[in-house]
Structures are given as structure tokens and as C-alpha cells.
Amino acid sequence: MSLLELRGIKKTYLLGNSVFGKRKAVEANKGISLTLEEGVCLGLVGESGSGKSTLGKIILGLEKPDQGEVWFLGKSLYCLKAKELKELRRNLQVVFQDCYSAVNPRLTIGEIIAEPIRNYERLTSVQEKKKVQELLEIVGLCQEDIHKYPYQLSGGQLQRINIARAIALKPKLIILDEAVSSLDVLVQVQILNLLAQLKEEFQLSYLFISHDLQAVNYIADRLAVMYKGEVIEWLEDMEQLERLKHPVSKKLLSSVLPTYPGIL
Ligand SMILES: Nc1ncnc2c1ncn2[C@@H]1O[C@H](COP(=O)(O)OP(=O)(O)OP(=O)(O)O)[C@@H](O)[C@H]1O
Ligand SMILES: [Mg+2]
């Protein structure tokens, strides 16, 4: 059984106002089927507007597909009752690109990381503080950062907070949607290294969404290339990058510059 299985996901957005004429249809996902096995990082790459985030949102239940099924841990997500869905959702977390808007600026780092824990576990304040401090250390920050506010942290540090929150419940799958894209290259490498280390330590699976094949190549085990709402190419092994045939994949490949140490 795959950890995640998508069967024929379709999503169309209608743009414009029907009162003033015909509404334009944007087919963001045109029948996507794919699987993700446990412990694997699947890179989902494609140019801007190819439908990657839409697919991520559908997996997270933030958007409803027009057609198709999302199977996660053997259950069809859109057929579950609220209680079952909540239980399953603890195994499915997300880190978005914009680390600042992902957090409530009025909360302390401690409160931000504790949010999912409070939703699912009944801990005393002492137990909760200990857990948050452990998480801060796991993501390479100091225990004292627990009292800080988001504006007191750099983008890289704040993305570590978002990662700490995502792993707090020891989920099975984390969707990383352009999670390193807005960071400086060196910080990107540090965060990618952290993600790779956490994946091993906690047997995590990732759906690593990016327009940047270079970052994907750094962390992914498998690759799906999206173009205009479809998966146009699939690689079982990132060692086989040169086998990519589609002109769109080749274009993404040609943009892979030797910026990161030790790649290509
Ligand atoms: N809420 C929405 N309403 C209308 N159209 C949308 C909506 N969300 C996405 N779209 C459209 O669907 C298409 C796919 O968008 P999506 O955000 O999934 O692409 P993407 O591959 O994640 O792009 P990027 O690399 O820029 O993040 C685009 O044409 C986009 O304009
Ligand atoms: Mg996107």
C-alpha cells in the first residue's frame, strides 16, 4: 500500500464575472495520478502556473478536486467523517514558501510550535515547554528562542520554526511547497540538509514542490514533472536526470546551474 495515492485529480478554476461575459476556465489539474511511498521524497517540479500548488492544496484538503480521489494511509480523504479526517490530518503537515505569513506575528515562537500539539495532545504546560524546547533543538535553534516573536528571527530561522511545527506530531508526510525558494542559496542548502536529516531521523516522506530542479535534485528520491496541469514525466531515480525527454523537462534541466556544492 502506498502512503499517498492520487487517482485522476481534476481541478478547474473559473475566472471572471459571469454577468459581464463568459467566464474563463483554468484547468489547474487535468487528471493527475501518482503515488508516493513511505520514506520517499517525491520532487514535484514544473514551471510557474503548472498546477503544483493546486495539487498540494488538494492533498491537504484546502481545495476540493472536481474529480478524482486522494488516498492517504489507505483511506480516501474526501470520504471521511470530520473526526476521522482530523486524526488522519495529524500525519499530513505542510511548510509553505512564505515563512512570515505562515505564522501569527502576535504569538511567541513557543506558542507557534505548540499550536498543533495543543490540537492533538493533552500535555501539562511543563511537558509542552519541554517538547517545544526539544523541537527547537532538533531544528538547530536555541531553547531560549521559545520567548521570541517572529519579527525577531531571520527568514531561515523562521522556516526552521515552521519545520519544527510541521514535525511536532511526528507526521508521515510533509508537503513542502517552495519551502526554500525565498531563502538565500546558502540558507537553502542548510534547510535542505536539515530536511534530509529529519527525513532519516523520523522516517518522514516529503512531497517537495518547487519550480527549481536544482533544489529538488538536492533532496528528492523520485521526480514528477508537471506542465499545464499534467504530469508529463516521471523518474524513479534522480540519478537518471539525463533521461528526461520532454522539452519542458530539458528546459528545467538546463536551468540547473552548479550553485550548490556537490550537484551535477
Ligand atoms: N484560487 C484560484 N483561483 C483561480 N485560479 C487559480 C487559483 N489557484 C490557482 N489558480 C490558477 O491555476 C493554475 C495553477 O496554479 P498553481 O498555483 O497550482 O501553479 P504552481 O505550479 O504552483 O505555480 P508557481 O510555481 O507559480 O507556484 C494557474 O493558472 C493559476 O493562476
Ligand atoms: Mg505554487
From TrEMBL:
Q: Which PROSITE patterns match?
A: ABC_TRANSPORTER_1, ABC_TRANSPORTER_2
GO function terms (MF aspect): ABC-type nickel transporter activity; ATP binding; ATP hydrolysis activity; nickel cation binding
Keywords of the record, alphabetical order, are: ATP-binding, Ion transport, Nickel, Nickel transport, Nucleotide-binding, Transport
Gene Ontology terms: cellular component: plasma membrane
Describe the location of the ABC transporter domain by residue ranges. 4-253
One short Pfam name that applies is ABC_tran
Q: What is this protein called?
A: Nickel import ATP-binding protein NikE
